[in-house]
């Protein structure tokens, strides 16, 4: 194996690791966002858990972060929560999620 091949494998491994971290962080962020939004919507128990779980699985299936923001923003608009506040919470929860994953939690 040449040095170039070793470097290429190293870059591929780092890319795979970074993508896995991103995937886990986004899923965790959406779970936290879902719990926060469910609380604002007055959902509790299984309904709150289902709302949060749906945000995680929806992004995995068809949604992206913009779709998640739009959906939660629409859901919370009726409660007087602005889209900007939802966007701020998404950013905040992503930072928390990355920190938790990096800490091994």
Q: What would your notes on this structure say?
A:
Helices cover 85% and strands 0% of the residues. It has four helices and no strands. The protein is elongated. The model has no long low-confidence stretch (mean pLDDT 89).
Please name the defining characteristics of this protein.
105 residues, mainly alpha, 4 helices, 85% helix, elongated
Brief rundown of the structure:
By secondary structure, the chain is an all-alpha fold.
What is the strand and helix layout of this fold?
Elements: H1 3-41, H2 45-61, H3 65-77, H4 83-102
Helix pairs in contact: 1-2, 1-3, 1-4, 3-4
Largest sheet geometry: none
Strand-residue fraction?
under 5%
Low-confidence stretches: none
**Span between termini:** 37 Å
The coarse overall form would be elongated
Element-level helix/strand string: HHHH
Helix content: over 70%
What is the count of β-strands? 0
Global mean pLDDT = 89
Structural class category: mainly alpha
Alpha carbon gyration radius: 17 Å
Question: Tally the helices: what do you get?
Answer: 4
């Amino acid at each position: 194996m040449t040095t170039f091949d070793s470097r290429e494998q190293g870059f591929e491994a780092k890319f795979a690791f970074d993508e896995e971290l991103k995937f886990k962080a986004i899923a965790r962020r959406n779970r936290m966002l879902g719990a926060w939004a469910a609380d604002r919507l007055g959902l509790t128990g299984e309904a709150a858990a289902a709302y949060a779980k749906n945000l995680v699985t929806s992004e995995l299936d068809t949604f992206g972060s913009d779709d998640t923001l739009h959906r939660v923003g629409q859901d919370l608009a009726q409660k007087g929560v602005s889209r900007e506040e939802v966007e701020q919470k998404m950013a905040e929860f992503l930072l928390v999620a990355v920190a938790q994953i990096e800490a091994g939690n």
